[in-house]
Design goal:
about 400 residues; alpha/beta; 1-deoxy-D-xylulose 5-phosphate reductoisomerase; binds magnesium ion; NAD(P)-bd_dom_sf; 16 helices; NADPH binding; 2 domains; Rossmann fold; 5-stranded mixed β-sheet; binds nicotinamide-adenine-dinucleotide; NADP
Protein backbone atom coordinates (compact mmCIF):
# COMPACT_ATOMS: atom_id res chain seq x y z
CA UNK A 1 0.00 0.00 0.00
CA UNK A 2 1.62 3.25 -1.20
CA UNK A 3 -0.36 5.33 1.30
CA UNK A 4 1.05 3.48 4.28
CA UNK A 5 3.43 5.40 6.52
CA UNK A 6 5.40 4.45 9.60
CA UNK A 7 6.07 6.08 12.94
CA UNK A 8 8.93 5.25 15.31
CA UNK A 9 7.97 6.07 18.86
CA UNK A 10 10.22 6.45 21.90
CA UNK A 11 8.32 6.17 25.18
CA UNK A 12 10.30 7.82 27.98
CA UNK A 13 8.89 6.76 31.33
CA UNK A 14 7.36 3.58 29.89
CA UNK A 15 6.96 1.88 33.29
CA UNK A 16 4.75 4.60 34.79
CA UNK A 17 1.03 5.19 34.71
CA UNK A 18 1.13 7.26 31.48
CA UNK A 19 3.86 5.03 30.00
CA UNK A 20 1.85 1.86 30.52
CA UNK A 21 -1.27 3.51 29.08
CA UNK A 22 0.85 4.56 26.07
CA UNK A 23 2.00 0.98 25.44
CA UNK A 24 -1.70 -0.02 25.51
CA UNK A 25 -2.49 2.62 22.89
CA UNK A 26 0.45 1.53 20.72
CA UNK A 27 -0.70 -2.11 20.84
CA UNK A 28 -4.17 -0.96 19.84
CA UNK A 29 -2.85 1.16 16.96
CA UNK A 30 -0.55 -1.65 15.78
CA UNK A 31 -3.59 -3.92 15.59
CA UNK A 32 -6.08 -1.50 14.06
CA UNK A 33 -4.42 1.36 12.15
CA UNK A 34 -4.44 0.47 8.46
CA UNK A 35 -2.50 3.58 7.42
CA UNK A 36 0.52 3.61 9.70
CA UNK A 37 3.04 1.12 11.10
CA UNK A 38 3.51 2.03 14.74
CA UNK A 39 6.90 0.88 16.03
CA UNK A 40 8.07 1.10 19.60
CA UNK A 41 11.65 2.19 18.86
CA UNK A 42 12.72 2.63 22.46
CA UNK A 43 11.23 2.49 25.94
CA UNK A 44 12.76 3.81 29.14
CA UNK A 45 12.41 2.79 32.75
CA UNK A 46 14.28 4.19 35.68
CA UNK A 47 15.14 1.18 37.83
CA UNK A 48 12.47 -1.42 37.09
CA UNK A 49 14.02 -3.14 34.03
CA UNK A 50 12.26 -6.42 34.62
CA UNK A 51 8.79 -4.96 34.39
CA UNK A 52 9.72 -3.10 31.24
CA UNK A 53 11.28 -6.13 29.57
CA UNK A 54 8.22 -8.25 30.40
CA UNK A 55 5.96 -5.59 28.86
CA UNK A 56 8.01 -5.61 25.67
CA UNK A 57 7.93 -9.40 25.44
CA UNK A 58 4.14 -9.25 25.91
CA UNK A 59 3.97 -6.66 23.11
CA UNK A 60 6.04 -8.81 20.76
CA UNK A 61 8.55 -5.96 20.45
CA UNK A 62 11.97 -7.68 20.42
CA UNK A 63 13.76 -4.85 18.61
CA UNK A 64 12.80 -2.13 21.05
CA UNK A 65 15.81 -0.53 22.71
CA UNK A 66 15.69 -0.49 26.49
CA UNK A 67 16.85 2.70 28.16
CA UNK A 68 17.89 2.52 31.79
CA UNK A 69 19.00 5.69 33.51
CA UNK A 70 20.68 3.68 36.27
CA UNK A 71 23.59 1.63 34.86
CA UNK A 72 23.57 -0.69 37.93
CA UNK A 73 19.95 -1.66 37.29
CA UNK A 74 20.75 -2.37 33.66
CA UNK A 75 23.87 -4.41 34.47
CA UNK A 76 21.93 -6.44 37.02
CA UNK A 77 19.15 -7.13 34.54
CA UNK A 78 21.54 -8.02 31.72
CA UNK A 79 23.39 -10.60 33.82
CA UNK A 80 20.14 -12.22 34.96
CA UNK A 81 18.79 -12.05 31.44
CA UNK A 82 21.84 -13.69 29.85
CA UNK A 83 20.81 -16.97 31.48
CA UNK A 84 17.37 -16.95 29.89
CA UNK A 85 18.38 -17.18 26.25
CA UNK A 86 14.90 -18.11 25.03
CA UNK A 87 13.95 -14.45 25.37
CA UNK A 88 14.78 -11.80 22.77
CA UNK A 89 17.91 -9.72 23.33
CA UNK A 90 17.08 -6.07 23.62
CA UNK A 91 19.74 -3.51 22.97
CA UNK A 92 20.25 -1.68 26.27
CA UNK A 93 21.28 1.96 26.56
CA UNK A 94 22.34 3.28 29.94
CA UNK A 95 23.76 6.25 31.74
CA UNK A 96 22.78 9.85 32.35
CA UNK A 97 22.85 10.78 28.63
CA UNK A 98 20.92 7.79 27.34
CA UNK A 99 17.53 9.51 27.49
CA UNK A 100 18.81 12.55 25.59
CA UNK A 101 20.47 10.30 23.03
CA UNK A 102 17.26 8.43 22.31
CA UNK A 103 15.22 11.66 22.19
CA UNK A 104 17.71 13.05 19.61
CA UNK A 105 17.97 9.88 17.51
CA UNK A 106 17.24 10.60 13.80
CA UNK A 107 15.22 7.39 13.44
CA UNK A 108 12.73 8.50 16.11
CA UNK A 109 9.66 10.41 14.89
CA UNK A 110 7.67 10.83 18.10
CA UNK A 111 8.81 11.07 21.71
CA UNK A 112 6.28 10.40 24.45
CA UNK A 113 7.56 12.45 27.40
CA UNK A 114 6.10 10.51 30.35
CA UNK A 115 8.86 10.82 32.95
CA UNK A 116 7.69 12.44 36.16
CA UNK A 117 9.21 15.69 37.40
CA UNK A 118 12.23 17.74 36.48
CA UNK A 119 14.02 14.47 35.52
CA UNK A 120 12.17 14.67 32.19
CA UNK A 121 13.53 18.10 31.27
CA UNK A 122 16.68 17.40 29.25
CA UNK A 123 15.19 14.62 27.13
CA UNK A 124 12.07 16.67 26.37
CA UNK A 125 14.17 19.68 25.35
CA UNK A 126 16.40 17.45 23.20
CA UNK A 127 13.36 16.01 21.41
CA UNK A 128 12.12 19.50 20.54
CA UNK A 129 15.58 20.62 19.41
CA UNK A 130 15.78 17.59 17.12
CA UNK A 131 12.47 18.26 15.42
CA UNK A 132 10.37 15.53 17.02
CA UNK A 133 6.70 15.44 17.71
CA UNK A 134 6.57 15.43 21.49
CA UNK A 135 3.50 13.91 23.11
CA UNK A 136 3.93 15.78 26.38
CA UNK A 137 2.74 14.39 29.70
CA UNK A 138 5.75 15.76 31.61
CA UNK A 139 4.22 19.13 32.54
CA UNK A 140 7.13 19.89 34.90
CA UNK A 141 9.33 20.62 31.85
CA UNK A 142 7.08 23.55 30.93
CA UNK A 143 6.84 24.70 34.55
CA UNK A 144 10.63 24.75 34.93
CA UNK A 145 11.66 26.00 31.50
CA UNK A 146 8.55 27.11 29.60
CA UNK A 147 10.21 30.11 27.97
CA UNK A 148 13.14 28.01 26.69
CA UNK A 149 10.74 25.42 25.30
CA UNK A 150 8.75 28.16 23.56
CA UNK A 151 11.96 29.60 22.11
CA UNK A 152 13.10 26.23 20.86
CA UNK A 153 9.71 25.56 19.23
CA UNK A 154 9.95 28.95 17.53
CA UNK A 155 13.40 28.12 16.15
CA UNK A 156 11.96 24.83 14.95
CA UNK A 157 9.14 26.61 13.13
CA UNK A 158 11.61 28.92 11.37
CA UNK A 159 13.75 26.03 10.18
CA UNK A 160 10.70 23.80 9.52
CA UNK A 161 12.27 21.14 11.75
CA UNK A 162 8.91 19.54 12.44
CA UNK A 163 9.20 20.06 16.19
CA UNK A 164 5.81 20.28 17.86
CA UNK A 165 4.20 19.59 21.21
CA UNK A 166 0.94 17.68 21.37
CA UNK A 167 -0.49 17.82 24.89
CA UNK A 168 -1.21 14.56 26.72
CA UNK A 169 -2.44 16.19 29.92
CA UNK A 170 -6.22 15.74 29.60
CA UNK A 171 -7.03 19.41 30.30
CA UNK A 172 -4.57 20.67 27.71
CA UNK A 173 -5.64 18.09 25.18
CA UNK A 174 -9.21 19.33 25.72
CA UNK A 175 -8.18 22.96 25.23
CA UNK A 176 -6.14 22.01 22.16
CA UNK A 177 -9.25 20.39 20.70
CA UNK A 178 -11.62 23.25 21.64
CA UNK A 179 -9.33 26.04 20.51
CA UNK A 180 -9.04 24.65 16.99
CA UNK A 181 -12.45 26.04 16.03
CA UNK A 182 -11.39 29.72 16.35
CA UNK A 183 -7.79 30.00 17.54
CA UNK A 184 -7.62 33.79 17.16
CA UNK A 185 -10.84 34.56 19.08
CA UNK A 186 -9.97 33.01 22.43
CA UNK A 187 -11.00 34.93 25.55
CA UNK A 188 -10.46 32.47 28.42
CA UNK A 189 -9.08 29.00 28.99
CA UNK A 190 -11.17 27.29 31.67
CA UNK A 191 -9.26 24.41 33.26
CA UNK A 192 -11.41 21.92 35.11
CA UNK A 193 -10.15 20.33 38.32
CA UNK A 194 -11.64 17.27 40.03
CA UNK A 195 -10.81 18.85 43.38
CA UNK A 196 -8.98 15.69 44.44
CA UNK A 197 -9.63 13.61 47.57
CA UNK A 198 -9.88 16.71 49.81
CA UNK A 199 -12.33 18.70 47.70
CA UNK A 200 -14.67 19.05 50.68
CA UNK A 201 -12.15 18.71 53.51
CA UNK A 202 -11.55 21.39 56.12
CA UNK A 203 -8.09 22.87 56.64
CA UNK A 204 -7.89 20.97 59.94
CA UNK A 205 -8.66 17.68 58.18
CA UNK A 206 -5.98 18.44 55.60
CA UNK A 207 -3.47 19.23 58.36
CA UNK A 208 -4.01 15.71 59.68
CA UNK A 209 -4.11 13.97 56.27
CA UNK A 210 -2.04 10.79 55.88
CA UNK A 211 -0.17 9.83 52.69
CA UNK A 212 -2.69 6.99 52.18
CA UNK A 213 -5.71 9.31 52.27
CA UNK A 214 -3.95 11.87 50.04
CA UNK A 215 -3.04 9.18 47.48
CA UNK A 216 -6.65 7.98 47.15
CA UNK A 217 -7.81 10.01 44.14
CA UNK A 218 -11.55 9.80 43.44
CA UNK A 219 -11.50 9.75 39.62
CA UNK A 220 -7.97 9.09 38.30
CA UNK A 221 -5.43 6.30 38.89
CA UNK A 222 -2.01 7.95 38.58
CA UNK A 223 1.60 7.96 39.78
CA UNK A 224 2.30 8.91 43.41
CA UNK A 225 3.74 12.37 42.82
CA UNK A 226 0.89 13.63 40.62
CA UNK A 227 -1.65 12.06 43.02
CA UNK A 228 -0.31 14.18 45.89
CA UNK A 229 -0.21 17.18 43.54
CA UNK A 230 -3.90 16.59 42.82
CA UNK A 231 -4.71 16.50 46.53
CA UNK A 232 -2.95 19.84 47.20
CA UNK A 233 -4.24 21.16 43.86
CA UNK A 234 -0.61 21.94 43.02
CA UNK A 235 -1.32 19.79 39.96
CA UNK A 236 -3.80 22.43 38.78
CA UNK A 237 -1.25 25.14 39.60
CA UNK A 238 1.32 23.34 37.40
CA UNK A 239 -1.37 23.04 34.71
CA UNK A 240 -2.08 26.78 34.80
CA UNK A 241 1.63 27.36 34.08
CA UNK A 242 1.63 24.58 31.46
CA UNK A 243 -1.35 26.21 29.71
CA UNK A 244 0.32 29.62 29.82
CA UNK A 245 3.25 28.28 27.77
CA UNK A 246 1.42 25.79 25.55
CA UNK A 247 -1.15 28.31 24.36
CA UNK A 248 0.90 31.50 24.77
CA UNK A 249 -1.72 33.31 26.85
CA UNK A 250 -1.25 35.46 29.97
CA UNK A 251 -2.23 34.18 33.44
CA UNK A 252 -5.21 36.59 33.39
CA UNK A 253 -6.75 34.58 30.54
CA UNK A 254 -6.72 31.34 32.55
CA UNK A 255 -9.39 30.19 35.03
CA UNK A 256 -9.94 27.11 37.16
CA UNK A 257 -13.32 25.58 37.96
CA UNK A 258 -13.95 22.48 40.06
CA UNK A 259 -15.73 19.63 38.30
CA UNK A 260 -15.76 16.49 40.48
CA UNK A 261 -16.83 14.02 37.75
CA UNK A 262 -13.75 14.58 35.50
CA UNK A 263 -15.82 14.23 32.34
CA UNK A 264 -15.55 17.80 31.08
CA UNK A 265 -11.77 17.93 30.60
CA UNK A 266 -11.62 21.70 30.07
CA UNK A 267 -13.29 24.51 28.14
CA UNK A 268 -12.49 27.54 26.03
CA UNK A 269 -14.50 30.75 26.12
CA UNK A 270 -14.40 32.78 22.90
CA UNK A 271 -14.72 36.54 22.46
CA UNK A 272 -18.46 36.35 21.70
CA UNK A 273 -19.10 34.55 25.02
CA UNK A 274 -19.58 31.10 23.51
CA UNK A 275 -17.94 28.28 25.50
CA UNK A 276 -16.75 25.06 23.89
CA UNK A 277 -15.97 22.05 26.10
CA UNK A 278 -14.44 18.63 25.47
CA UNK A 279 -16.03 15.63 27.18
CA UNK A 280 -14.94 12.01 27.50
CA UNK A 281 -14.65 9.41 30.26
CA UNK A 282 -11.64 9.89 32.57
CA UNK A 283 -9.20 7.66 30.66
CA UNK A 284 -5.75 8.93 29.66
CA UNK A 285 -5.62 6.62 26.64
CA UNK A 286 -7.85 9.08 24.77
CA UNK A 287 -5.54 12.13 24.93
CA UNK A 288 -2.47 9.89 24.49
CA UNK A 289 -3.85 8.41 21.27
CA UNK A 290 -4.85 11.81 19.90
CA UNK A 291 -1.35 13.17 20.61
CA UNK A 292 0.08 10.27 18.59
CA UNK A 293 -2.34 10.26 15.65
CA UNK A 294 -3.31 13.95 15.31
CA UNK A 295 -4.63 15.26 12.91
CA UNK A 296 -6.23 11.85 12.46
CA UNK A 297 -8.88 10.67 14.93
CA UNK A 298 -9.12 6.90 15.08
CA UNK A 299 -11.31 4.44 16.99
CA UNK A 300 -10.06 4.33 20.58
CA UNK A 301 -9.82 1.65 23.25
CA UNK A 302 -11.40 3.60 26.08
CA UNK A 303 -15.11 2.81 26.60
CA UNK A 304 -17.37 5.70 25.58
CA UNK A 305 -19.57 7.71 27.94
CA UNK A 306 -22.58 5.83 29.22
CA UNK A 307 -25.58 7.83 28.07
CA UNK A 308 -28.09 5.32 29.43
CA UNK A 309 -27.40 6.68 32.92
CA UNK A 310 -28.50 10.04 34.26
CA UNK A 311 -25.74 12.66 33.87
CA UNK A 312 -24.84 14.85 36.78
CA UNK A 313 -22.09 17.22 35.79
CA UNK A 314 -21.28 19.76 38.45
CA UNK A 315 -19.20 22.91 38.08
CA UNK A 316 -18.23 25.05 41.05
CA UNK A 317 -15.72 27.80 41.82
CA UNK A 318 -12.28 26.78 43.10
CA UNK A 319 -11.42 27.69 46.72
CA UNK A 320 -8.11 29.56 46.78
CA UNK A 321 -8.23 29.85 50.57
CA UNK A 322 -8.27 26.13 51.30
CA UNK A 323 -5.96 25.41 48.33
CA UNK A 324 -3.21 28.06 48.48
CA UNK A 325 -1.21 26.13 45.84
CA UNK A 326 -3.66 27.45 43.25
CA UNK A 327 -2.83 31.04 44.09
CA UNK A 328 0.83 30.15 43.68
CA UNK A 329 0.11 28.71 40.23
CA UNK A 330 -1.48 31.95 39.04
CA UNK A 331 1.40 33.97 40.51
CA UNK A 332 4.08 31.87 38.80
CA UNK A 333 2.20 31.97 35.47
CA UNK A 334 2.05 35.76 35.80
CA UNK A 335 5.70 36.47 36.68
CA UNK A 336 7.46 33.67 34.71
CA UNK A 337 11.27 33.88 34.82
CA UNK A 338 12.83 31.73 37.52
CA UNK A 339 9.64 31.29 39.59
CA UNK A 340 8.48 28.06 37.93
CA UNK A 341 11.78 26.23 38.42
CA UNK A 342 11.86 27.24 42.08
CA UNK A 343 8.27 26.29 42.91
CA UNK A 344 8.52 23.03 41.00
CA UNK A 345 11.69 21.96 42.82
CA UNK A 346 10.32 22.95 46.23
CA UNK A 347 7.16 21.01 45.48
CA UNK A 348 8.99 17.86 44.32
CA UNK A 349 11.02 17.97 47.52
CA UNK A 350 8.03 18.71 49.80
CA UNK A 351 5.93 15.93 48.24
CA UNK A 352 8.72 13.42 48.89
CA UNK A 353 9.03 14.62 52.51
CA UNK A 354 5.26 14.33 53.01
CA UNK A 355 5.18 10.80 51.54
CA UNK A 356 8.04 9.96 53.89
CA UNK A 357 6.02 11.15 56.90
CA UNK A 358 8.34 14.06 57.66
CA UNK A 359 6.00 17.02 57.09
CA UNK A 360 2.28 17.72 57.20
CA UNK A 361 0.10 17.77 54.09
CA UNK A 362 -0.60 21.49 54.53
CA UNK A 363 3.14 22.20 54.78
CA UNK A 364 3.61 21.33 51.09
CA UNK A 365 2.11 24.53 49.64
CA UNK A 366 3.52 26.54 52.54
CA UNK A 367 7.07 25.36 51.81
CA UNK A 368 6.66 26.19 48.12
CA UNK A 369 5.51 29.72 48.95
CA UNK A 370 8.36 30.26 51.43
CA UNK A 371 11.05 29.01 49.03
CA UNK A 372 9.61 31.20 46.26
CA UNK A 373 9.73 34.22 48.60
CA UNK A 374 13.36 33.43 49.52
CA UNK A 375 14.72 33.33 45.99
CA UNK A 376 16.22 36.14 43.94
CA UNK A 377 13.92 36.48 40.97
CA UNK A 378 15.38 36.78 37.48
CA UNK A 379 13.20 37.35 34.42
CA UNK A 380 15.32 35.76 31.64
CA UNK A 381 17.33 32.86 33.08
CA UNK A 382 19.44 30.44 31.04
CA UNK A 383 19.00 26.69 31.28
CA UNK A 384 22.07 26.27 33.48
CA UNK A 385 20.78 28.98 35.83
CA UNK A 386 17.40 27.22 36.05
CA UNK A 387 19.09 23.92 36.88
CA UNK A 388 21.20 25.63 39.51
CA UNK A 389 18.08 27.17 41.07
CA UNK A 390 16.37 23.78 40.92
CA UNK A 391 19.11 22.37 43.18
CA UNK A 392 19.08 25.43 45.44
CA UNK A 393 15.28 25.26 45.88
CA UNK A 394 15.44 21.58 46.90
CA UNK A 395 18.03 22.39 49.56
CA UNK A 396 16.08 25.43 50.70
CA UNK A 397 12.88 23.35 50.98
CA UNK A 398 14.77 20.81 53.11
CA UNK A 399 16.05 23.62 55.36
CA UNK A 400 12.54 25.12 55.73
CA UNK A 401 11.13 21.74 56.73
CA UNK A 402 13.96 20.99 59.15
CA UNK A 403 13.52 24.42 60.75
CA UNK A 404 9.76 24.05 61.22
CA UNK A 405 9.75 20.56 62.77
P1 LIG B 1 4.65 7.51 37.38
O1 LIG B 1 5.31 7.75 38.67
O2 LIG B 1 3.61 6.47 37.29
O3 LIG B 1 5.77 7.17 36.28
C1 LIG B 1 6.93 7.94 36.16
C2 LIG B 1 7.88 7.37 35.12
O4 LIG B 1 9.07 8.16 35.15
C3 LIG B 1 8.32 5.93 35.39
O5 LIG B 1 8.47 5.25 34.17
C4 LIG B 1 9.69 6.09 36.07
O6 LIG B 1 10.53 4.99 35.83
C5 LIG B 1 10.22 7.33 35.37
N1 LIG B 1 11.16 8.07 36.21
C6 LIG B 1 10.97 8.53 37.48
N2 LIG B 1 12.06 9.19 37.91
C7 LIG B 1 12.96 9.14 36.91
C8 LIG B 1 14.30 9.65 36.76
N3 LIG B 1 14.91 10.31 37.75
N4 LIG B 1 14.93 9.42 35.59
C9 LIG B 1 14.33 8.75 34.59
N5 LIG B 1 13.08 8.25 34.67
C10 LIG B 1 12.40 8.45 35.82
O7 LIG B 1 4.07 8.93 36.90
P2 LIG B 1 2.83 9.22 35.93
O8 LIG B 1 1.59 9.33 36.72
O9 LIG B 1 2.85 8.30 34.75
O10 LIG B 1 3.19 10.71 35.45
C11 LIG B 1 4.19 10.97 34.48
C12 LIG B 1 4.06 12.41 34.01
O11 LIG B 1 2.80 12.58 33.37
C13 LIG B 1 4.08 13.43 35.16
O12 LIG B 1 4.74 14.59 34.72
C14 LIG B 1 2.61 13.72 35.39
O13 LIG B 1 2.40 15.02 35.92
C15 LIG B 1 2.06 13.61 33.98
N6 LIG B 1 0.63 13.27 33.92
C16 LIG B 1 0.19 12.09 34.43
C17 LIG B 1 -1.17 11.77 34.36
C18 LIG B 1 -1.68 10.45 34.88
O14 LIG B 1 -2.88 10.17 34.70
N7 LIG B 1 -0.90 9.61 35.49
C19 LIG B 1 -2.08 12.69 33.79
C20 LIG B 1 -1.58 13.89 33.28
C21 LIG B 1 -0.23 14.17 33.34
MG1 LIG C 1 -4.28 16.99 34.04
Amino acid sequence: DLQRTSCNVAVLGATGSIGTATLDVLKHLQATDSQCDWRLWAASGHTNVDKLARELVAMGSPDTRLVMSEPEAAACWQSAHAERDSEPKHQVLTGPDALVKVASEPAVDTVVAAIVGRAGLESTLAAIEHGKRVALANKETLVVAGSLVAESLNEGRKSASGAEILPVDSEHSAIFQCIASHPSAVKKLILTASGGPFREATVQQMRDATPESALAHPTWDMGRKISIDSATMMNKALEIIEARWLFDLPAEAIEVVVHPQSIIHSMVEFTDGSVIAQLSPPDMRMPIQLALTHPRRLPGIAPSLDRAQRWDLQLMPADLERFPALRLGFEVARVGGTAGAVVNAANECAVALFLDGQIRFTDIAQVCQTVLNHHNFESTPTLSRLLELDRWARDEAQRCCAAST
